[in-house]
Amino acid sequence: MSYVDMEIASQPDCWRTAARLANSVADRLPRPGERVAVVGCGTSWFMAMAYAARREHAGHGETDAFQASEFPTGRRYDRMIAITRSGTTTEVTDLLAALRGMVPTTVLVGDPAAPAADLADATVPLTFADERAVVQTRFATTALALLRAHLGDNIPALSADAEVAVRAPLPIDPAQIEQVTFLGRGWTVGLAHEAALKCREAATFWAEAYPAMDYRHGPISVAAPGRLVWAFGELPDGLAEDVAATGAAFVHSRTHGCRSVIGNWAAGRTPLDPMADLILAQRFAATLATSRGLDPDAPRHLARSVVLA
User: Fold this and answer.
1) Is 47's pLDDT higher than 70?
2) Are 66 and 40 in contact (CB under 8 A)?
3) How confident is the prediction for the chain on average, in pLDDT?
4) pLDDT tens digits, one per residue of 105-131
5) Is 283 helix (H, G, I), strand (E, B) or coil?
6) Alpha helices (runs of H) in 81-179, residue ranges in sequence order
7) 85: closest CA among 52, 57, 46?
């Protein structure tokens, strides 16, 4: 079993641990009403997108997400949260250094001895979720689980959904698919981007991601038999029918997907939380890699952290 497979399977326990940790680190996390920025790179940026949209929608305050290199330093924020597994990513450490003394910063990090922890005002160490794999899975989702716990989301129920997701059959055989597009709405747009990234990283596979309402504004033109559309969370009216008309396969937990595509996999079950659906997408990507003769623990051109000279 690859490191990626083992780390994907460990997510339910990691999320439960994050829920227990959330109360003890609450003073390091955003207070209701604060104007907050959340930053990261790659996978961490997509988790920042998901948290920012969920926090603001829940009424906790204005929340923006940025790729760390694109942070608008001229804007005023009450707090900045940085998500970084290694704590060494150049864009994140440069930003933390630039903001020192200007805005309170908190870093969620896998290694509390990393440079980012020294540069931030507060640190939330997630050592129990750190990973050996280059391709991120459990660290990123555990960071999001902790932030969701701080918002009051039911993480025990989420973890129970995760237990289903690590054991359930995949909704479709990856070997049958030549292209996949992931869709989301609101906070699940970040999850859609992350699912697509997993397919590109682990399997060098053609994968895209869009907000679900924007999908019909052009991207649907690549949908066809042998291709897949996978939606997270709420689905716009009529979209499933529009995808079906293209001949593409369709997966969607909330509506149990197209039964002609995924058969009895979803029949009669309670819809999973979109983060648990992301576990299925992670497993899809890892299985896709092995079906293409690739090692998901050795992705092409990638390293565990991007450190620039």
Assistant:
1) yes
2) no
3) 93
4) 999 999 999 999 999 999 999 999 999
5) helix
6) 90-99, 115-119, 138-151, 155-167
7) 46
For tokens 């949209």, the residue is 53
- Residue 55 neighbours by CB under 8 Å, 6+ apart: 30, 36, 61, 63, 147, 151
Q: Is 263 left (phi over 0), alpha (psi -120 to 50) or beta?
A: left
Q: Residue 65 belongs to what H/E stretch?
A: strand 63-67
The DSSP code for 63 is: E
Locate 171 and state its tokens: 């909704």
Q: Quick check: helix, strand or coil at residue 154?
A: coil
CA 161 to CA 146: how far, in whole Å? Answer: 16
Q: How far is CA 215 from the centre of its chain?
A: 19
The DSSP secondary-structure symbol of 252 reads E
Helix (H, G, I), strand (E, B) or coil at 134: coil
pTM, rounded to two decimals? 0.94
Q: How far apart are CA 66 and CA 17, in angstroms?
A: 27
pLDDT in tens, 26-35: 999 999 999 9
Alpha-carbon distance 166 to 159, whole Å?
Answer: 11
CA dist 75 → 37, 66, 78, 103 (Å): 10, 12, 10, 10
Q: What H or E segment, with its residue span, contains residue 207?
A: strand 207-211
